[in-house]
Design brief:
Ferric-bd; 348 residues; SBP; disordered N terminus; metal-binding; D-Maltodextrin-Binding Protein, domain 2; metal ion binding
Length: 348
């Protein structure tokens, strides 16, 4: 985590790293540099450094625009943007989960960005309806199961995990993580609060142990035989599989005959008080295209949000699936309802 003191504008300039930009903008960026226009922007990112620095380095190589950045949790970064207001040096916010992106927009931290490039490369369901943020990679939150104790034909839907068949066999991550809040938010959108509360109570009744702090510890419990099934983000499974290709677990794509697999995004938006909005938009547009899309997704074993960009080979090996077609912004719009519902259901 990279945290700087409140007085840090000059320090950020000294931290200039690199980045990436689209080929169509390369000449214009260099001409701006020659004309003395700003050639450095500031990014606040809740994605870890190793997932963004290679992108920033490439952007700088191609455009001459340098990128200084701060990495931290999404909560602290949004609080910082809110406190700094018009004094903020940040031009772009990158964060994970549509729930967080929606919250940043709802707090007035992001501005609308009109861009034909973004509209052409990012499907509407993966962007804000007011163009304040845009998804840049997709992750599925799906079912993971023990290949030693579960047959895939036993599995079907998220809702089915609430039935007696999974009593004493289910593990879940804490409800405090936004990933599970977003999943429940989409269930509310599909089923309404009453039915969703029944589902979540069923999950809680079927838990074999207390909830886990993260997806990795949940999957370690499955491997150890503590539980048989769980719900995780796909890239966490990918990391474990990359370390041990023979790991006795597999992913299952639920709800293929109904709503589809719950998917979410990591994404970005130009900050409300950006000092260099044109350059921030240029970076955002580049991240939505070609090589940058492959890198943005591939570095974290996610799916490119741009449907024209090939999927990483390991990710592709998990097979194709039908994704939920709801606009992911519902994860934020119903987040407060989801949190209250999970609390009522005893999901901690």
């Amino acid at each position: 985590m990279n945290i700087l003191s409140p007085v840090f504008t000059l320090a950020l300039s000294a931290m200039a790293l690199g980045g990436i930009a689209g080929c169509s903008d390369q000449d214009s960026a260099k001409s701006e540099a020659e004309a003395g226009q700003p050639t450095e922007i500031v990014v606040y990112s809740s994605r870890n450094e190793h997932l963004v620095k290679p992108l920033f380095d490439r952007f700088t190589d191609e455009t001459g625009i340098k990128i200084s950045y701060i990495t931290d949790g999404e909560g602290p970064l949004m609080a910082r943007l809110q406190a700094e207001a018009e004094r903020t040096p940040a031009d772009l916010l990158i964060t994970v989960d549509a729930g967080n992106l929606w919250q940043a927009a709802n707090m007035g931290l992001l501005q609308s960005t009109e861009s034909e490039v973004l509209e052409q490369n990012i499907p509407a369901k993966y962007q804000d309806s007011e163009n304040r943020w845009f998804g840049l990679s997709i992750r599925a939150r799906t079912i993971v199961y023990s290949t030693e104790r579960v047959k895939p034909e036993e599995l079907s839907t998220y809702e089915n995990l609430a039935t007696a068949a999974w009593d004493g066999r289910l593990c879940l991550r804490t409800s405090k993580k936004v990933y599970n809040q977003s999943l429940v938010a989409t269930l509310i959108e599909r089923h309404g609060e009453q039915r969703t509360e029944e589902i979540v109570k069923g999950w809680v009744d079927n838990l074999v142990t207390d909830v886990f702090p993260n997806d990795t510890s949940l999957m370690e419990a499955i491997v150890a035989g503590q539980c048989d099934v769980g719900i995780v983000n796909t890239y966490y499974f990918g990391r474990m599989q990359a370390e041990d290709p023979a790991i006795p677990m597999a992913l299952f794509w639920p709800n293929q005959l109904t709503s589809g697999v719950h998917v979410n995004v990591s994404g970005a938006g130009v900050t409300r008080h950006a000092k260099h909005p044109a350059q921030a938009r240029q970076l955002l547009e580049w991240l939505a295209q070609g090589e940058a899309q492959a890198m943005f997704g591939g570095l974290n074993m996610e799916y490119p949000v741009n449907p024209a960009v090939p999927v990483d080979d390991l990710v592709k090996s998990w097979g194709e699936f039908k994704a939920d077609d709801l606009n992911v912004e519902v994860a934020g719009r119903r987040q407060a309802e989801a949190i209250k519902l999970m609390d009522r259901a005893g999901y901690r």
